[in-house]
TrEMBL record:
Keyword Nucleotide-binding set for record: yes
GO biological process, any: microtubule-based process
One Gene Ontology cellular component: microtubule
GO molecular function: GTP binding
Pfam families in alphabetical order: Tubulin (PF00091)
Location of the Tubulin/FtsZ GTPase domain: 3-88
Gene3D superfamilies: Tubulin/FtsZ, GTPase domain (3.40.50.1440)
Subcellular location as annotated: Cytoplasm, Cytoskeleton
Keywords attached to this entry: Cytoplasm, Cytoskeleton, GTP-binding, Microtubule, Nucleotide-binding
Membership in a protein family: Belongs to the tubulin family.
Source organism (scientific name): Eschrichtius robustus (California gray whale)
Record-given protein name: Tubulin/FtsZ GTPase domain-containing protein
């Protein structure tokens, strides 16, 4: 679909740093977007895991690996701590 658009401005990506699909698949997606659409903007809205409200043991590992990809392939990253969202409700 993106190839069919004449005035594609960029991509908005919403994901979690702690989840397997949210972190692993998004890292792969960001790499592919950088290769195929290098000059297009990539904006990330991410939820970063907090140890106080952790739901999985592997969240710290997933977040460390995803952080590297975010630094390398994202143009703008807006991060929200999961504990801050927890206190909103």
């Amino acid at each position: 679909m993106a190839d069919q658009r004449a005035s594609l401005q960029g991509f908005l990506i919403f994901h979690s740093f702690g989840g397997g699909t949210g972190s692993g698949f998004t890292s792969l997606l960001m790499e592919h977007l950088s290769v195929n659409y290098g000059k297009k903007s990539k904006l990330e809205f991410s939820i970063y895991p907090a140890p106080q409200v952790s739901t999985a043991v592997v969240e710290p590992y997933n977040s460390i690996l995803t952080t590297h990809t975010t630094l390398e392939h994202s143009d703008y990253a807006f991060m929200v701590d999961s504990e801050a969202i927890y206190h909103l409700s």
